[in-house]
Amino acid sequence: MIDLAFLRETFATLVSGVPLTLQLAALSSLLGAIFALLLVWAQVALPSTLGRVARFYIFAFRGTPLLVQLFLIYYGLSQFRPTLSALGLWGLLRDPYWCAVLALMFNTAAYCAEIFRGGLQAVPAGQVEAARAAGFSGFLLFRRIVFPIALRQALPGYGNELVLMVKATSLASTVTLMEITGLAAKAISQSYRAIEVFLVAGALYLVLNVVLVQALGLLERRLMRHLAR
Amino acid sequence: MKVLHLITPILFGLTMATAAHAEDKVLRIATEGAFYPGNFTKPDGSLDGFEIELAKDLCTRMKVTCEIAAQDWDGLIPSLNAGKYDAIMASMSITDKRLEVVDFSIPYIRVSLAFATMGDGPLADLPGTGTVVNLDDEAAAGPAIAALHEALKGKTIGAQTATVGVDYLTKAFGGDITLNEYKSAEQSDLDLLAGRVDAVFAGAPILAASLSKPEMKGVKIAGYTLSGSMFGRGAGVAVRKGDDALKTDFNEAIRAAAADGTMSKLFVKWYGIDLTPEWK
C-alpha cells in the first residue's frame, strides 16, 4: 500500500524546503527574542508609560491567531502601498519572505516577553538582597546574579517556544513561500496522495525538532551542572 | 414527519410523470447561474450571461422553445440523467470522467489562458493582445511564444497552483520567470494589485470574471491568449447518453452560430475576446 519509490521522491522534494524553514525560524526567533527583551525592559523600567504599551502589545499579539497576523501584514498592508512606498517600507513588505519573518517575529516576541518576565520575576528576592549585601549593584548585579538565575528559569519555557516557532513557519506557505509545507501542498495537488506527503512533511519537522530539543537539553544540563548528581 | 415520508415518493413520482409528459414540447436547459460571465443570476433573479444568450440563439436555430433554469452545480448531471432537464450549458468542461455518464456536443467554448497585468505596470505592453494562439499549430505559435518569452524574462507571474497554467508556464518559460503559486484567484488578484506579481496567468473566463470587479479597474488583459489541446477539450453542451438526435441538433446549431459570427459577437461582448473553438 505504501509506495516506497514515491516516498523517496517526496522526501527529496520536501528536503529542499528545509533551508527556508530553518531560515524563517532562526531569523524570526532571533529578532523576536531581541524585541521581547525590549518589551520586558519597558515593563520593568517604565511600568507606567512604555510598559503599558508593551503590555497592550503582548495582549493583542497573544490574543490573535498568527495566521490572521500574517494575512494582515501580507494582504492587509499591501492596500496601503502608496503610503508604505513613501515611507520606504514597501521594498520590505512587498517580499513575502519578510512579511513572514515580521509576522513570526511579532508573534513570538509577545510570548517570549512573558516567558522572560516570568523568569526574571522568579529570581528569589533573598538572592538579590544577598548580592546587594555583598556589594553588587546596577548592571553588575543584573549580569552576575539576576540574569544567570532568570535564564535558567526561563530556558524550559523558551525551548518550548522555539519548538513552536519551527512549526509555525508552516504558515508561511499561505503567502506563496515554498518551505516544507508549501512544497507538500504543491506535491499533494499534483499527486492527490495526502497521506504519504504529509507523513514525510511531519517526519521532517519531527527531525528538526528532535535536533533542537537535544541541543536545548544539552544547554540546560550544562547550565544546571551545579545541581547534577 | 411520518406523513411526509409517505407522500414524498408520491409527489416525486408525480413531478417525474409531468416532466416526461412535457418533454416533446419544450427543451429544458439547465445552467448553474453562478459563473460570471458564462451564466449568472441577476439581482432580480433572472439569468444572464454568455451561455444564456447563446442558448437562446441555438434554440432559435433548432426551432424549439427553450426553458433555462438554474441548478446547483453538483446536481446538474444527476438531474439531467433523472430527466429533469434535457441539456446542460454551464461552462462544463468535456472530460473522460463526465463522458462516462453523459454525452457532449462539440465544444462551444475554447479553453484558453491569458495574462492579466496592471494597465500601468511593467507588462502592460505584452505582445499579441487580443490574439488567440493555438499551441497545437507549432509553426504559428512558435514566434508568438518566443515574443512572450522575451517580454516575460525576469518577471514574476502568479498562477493557481496545480492547474494547467502552472504546468504550461513551467514547461515553456522554466527558470526565466519567477512563478508564484496561489490557492485561489482572489489571492493572486490581490498580489497583482499590490505589485508583488507582474502578471496573473489564468483561464480567460476566470480573468473576465475578475476584471468585472470594481477593485480590479486598473487591470487589463495583455499579451497573446493561449489555447491548445494540452489545456483540455473545452466546454460543451451535455445531453443524456444516447440522446444522439439532440446532440446532432446542438452540433449543427453551434456550427451555424459560429459560421455567421453570432458566437464571436457574444464572446467579445461577455469575455472581451473571441473564444470560438476550431473544429476539424
Outline the secondary-structure elements.
The complex is a heterodimer of chains A (about 230) and B (about 280).
Chain A: H1 4-15, H2 18-45, H3 50-63, H4 66-76, H5 81-87, H6 90-93, H7 96-121, H8 125-133, H9 138-168, H10 180-191, H11 194-223
Helix pairs in contact in A: 1-10, 1-11, 2-3, 2-7, 2-9, 3-7, 4-7, 7-9, 9-11, 10-11
Chain B: H1 2-22, E1 26-31, E2 34-35, E3 39-41, E4 47-48, H2 50-62, E5 65-70, H3 76-81, E6 87-88, H4 96-99, E7 102-104, E8 112-118, E9 132-134, H5 138-152, E10 156-160, H6 164-173, E11 178-182, H7 185-194, E12 199-203, H8 204-211, E13 219-227, E14 238-240, H9 244-259, H10 262-271
Parallel strand pairs in B: 1-5, 1-6, 9-13, 10-11, 10-12
Antiparallel strand pairs in B: 2-3, 3-4, 6-14, 7-14, 8-12, 8-13
Count of DSSP strands of chain B:
14
The structural class of chain B is alpha/beta
Q: What is the fold named in CATH at topology level of the largest domain in chain B?
A: D-Maltodextrin-Binding Protein, domain 2
CATH topology-level name of the largest domain in chain A: MetI-like fold
Summing up helix and strand content along with how strands pair, one would put the structural category of chain A as mainly alpha
Global Rg of chain A: 21 Å
| C-alpha termini separation of chain B | 57 Å
Most extensive chain interface and residues per partner: A-B, 12 and 13 residues
Q: Total number of helical segments of chain B?
A: 10
Strand content of chain B: 15-25%
Mean pLDDT of chain B: 88
Main beta sheet of chain A, described? none
Show unreliable segments of chain B: 13-23
CATH superfamily of the largest domain in chain B: Periplasmic binding protein-like II
Subcellular location (chain A): Cell inner membrane; Cell membrane
InterPro entries (chain A): AA_ABC_transptr_permease_3TM, ArtM/GltK/GlnP/TcyL/YhdX-like, MetI-like, MetI-like_sf
Main location (chain A): membrane
Protein name (chain A): ABC transporter permease
